[in-house]
């Protein structure tokens, strides 16, 4: 309002009268009129601004009227557009889906297919915006099955394109979907790529990758593939207290899920063999220094990290099927030597 009042004062030719002529009650009255006029002075309609479009659309939906904005954007997407235009249209669709719930719910599976087709675009920015739009639509239950059909394509993009923004967008989408069993063969193929992203130095992508791996670690038919996946020699650096708390917490949840899985009766019924550079050897092998890292995290400044570190320690010492019997919980010489 501070910018519009002087403009309105000038329009009403009140600036001089307020400063030089009016006094007492007259000045107050004139100032009141100027302020009131300033409030009524609206800035020019910025129809091309995404913020203005969103405000107008939300205002119309609040009054029970369909703004038509999502439909207009989807129709534009069907037309021939350059990469930049497609990227901007998809970005606007994502915003509108989050803001205009009723309009988004009125979309069809054909609309989801149209957005999904953008994953085949040659431009990475278009792929990223398409992933973000699908993530927005995945919050609407009736579209989840249709979006699941793109899971294999998303996994292919994540594993073949080294782009951190694409990794984050793709993994966020996958983490928001229940992954069907028919995707498991593809998941096995991309497991090394997921492990590489987890060991990268981009925290947002790392967090999303480890969340997905934690989910997959609960699948009996994928657990061995995860544990036998090759990791870097410095893998345990992910458990250093200097790591961001958000990443530490997710890595610790992952370790707990793996520990519980390998201690289950189902998994221990088979004698598994692991390669020397495997995740299993890094975490649970005789030469692993995981115990030292965990003990240092028990005094971590963030409480949720402390608690999760303790949970991992307990899971390492107590096999899952024996956890109900305290006497059966004993330090494993592989992790806590000499009764640590």
Automatic annotation (TrEMBL):
Pfam families: Arm_2 (PF04826). GO terms for cellular component: nucleus. InterPro entries: ARM-like, ARM-rpt_dom, ARM-type_fold, Armc12. Residues 70-279 form the Armadillo repeat-containing domain. PANTHER family: ARMADILLO REPEAT-CONTAINING PROTEIN 12 (PTHR47144). This is Armadillo repeat-containing domain-containing protein. The lineage of its organism: Eukaryota, Metazoa, Chordata, Craniata, Vertebrata.
């Amino acid at each position: 309002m501070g910018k519009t009042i002087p403009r309105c004062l000038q329009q009403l030719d009140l600036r001089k009268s307020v400063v030089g002529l009016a006094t007492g009650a007259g000045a107050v009255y004139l100032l009141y009129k100027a302020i009131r006029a300033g409030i009524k002075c609206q800035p020019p309609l910025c129809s091309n601004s995404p913020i203005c479009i969103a405000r107008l659309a939300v205002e119309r939906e609040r009054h029970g009227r369909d703004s038509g904005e999502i439909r207009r954007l989807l129709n534009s997407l069907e037309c021939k557009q350059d990469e930049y235009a497609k990227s901007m249209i998809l970005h606007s669709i994502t915003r509108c889906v989050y803001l205009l719930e009723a309009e988004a719910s009125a979309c069809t599976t054909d609309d989801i297919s149209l957005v999904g087709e953008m994953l085949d675009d040659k431009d990475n920015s278009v792929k990223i915006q398409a992933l973000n739009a699908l993530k927005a639509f995945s919050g609407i239950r009736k579209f989840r099955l249709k979006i699941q059909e793109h899971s294999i394509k998303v996994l292919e993009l994540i594993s073949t394109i080294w782009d951190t923004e694409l990794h984050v967008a793709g993994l966020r989408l996958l983490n928001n979907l229940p992954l069907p069993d028919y995707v498991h063969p593809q998941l096995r193929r991309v497991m090394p790529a997921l492990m590489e992203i987890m060991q990268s130095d981009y925290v947002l992508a790392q967090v999303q990758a480890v969340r997905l791996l934690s989910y997959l670690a609960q699948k009996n038919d994928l657990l061995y593939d995860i544990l036998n996946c090759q990791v870097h020699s410095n893998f345990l650096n992910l458990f250093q207290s200097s790591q961001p708390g958000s990443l530490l917490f997710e890595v610790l949840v992952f370790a707990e899920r793996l520990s519980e899985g390998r201690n289950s009766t189902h998994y221990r019924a088979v004698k598994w063999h692991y390669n020397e550079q495997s995740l299993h050897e890094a975490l649970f092998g005789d030469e692993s220094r995981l115990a030292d890292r965990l003990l240092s995290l028990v005094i971590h400044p963030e409480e949720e990290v402390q608690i999760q570190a303790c949970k991992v320690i307990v899971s390492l010492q107590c096999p899952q099927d024996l956890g109900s019997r305290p006497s059966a919980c004993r330090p494993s010489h592989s992790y806590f030597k000499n009764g640590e």
